[in-house]
Amino acid sequence: MKAVSVFEYSFEPTVELSSVSEENDVLLWIFHVDKRPPHIGISSRGMFFSLKSNGKDVSKCIVVNEVVDNKSIKCVKVKLRFNISLTQILGAFDSFTYAMSSDNSCLSPIKIVLEMPSYIMKLADLLNELERRNKIEGWVSKNVKKKELGILKYSLTDIDARLNQLHD
Hints:
Oligomer: single chain
Structural class: alpha+beta
Mean pLDDT: 93
Helix content: 25-40%
Number of strands: 8
Largest sheet: 6 strands, antiparallel
Order of helices and strands: EEEEEHEHHHEEH
Distance between the termini: 44 Å
Radius of gyration: 15 Å
């Protein structure tokens, strides 16, 4: 009998990199990979962008790395085969104020930046589509055990419930 995976997406088949360059690479940052749902952001040219329940994060990657280290956040950085300018990222994030629902989540501006179809509503869907398009070069992780290297199964209702909880 085959074991049923708890993951909707697993990093195992893709390449684990020894390092990434936050100055030169376009990275998809996945925070709290052990949670349903996780949180994501994107970086390019040393700058990080994320849509959160209380607004937007625009920070230097070095600052985000310090938070990951100081709080021991389980983080995976996925190196993407894209060349994206800061202007493109800022343009996509400009049309959002904060994450409020599964229709307007941390994924929403990133889908615009990466020119993904509207039917992609969850991180696993995005990662599967990026993999299908051969846009994932590899990944690195921080504070993540091998058995946690995947995106846990969750629903759109889970996204809405988490955002409602954060807005209370």
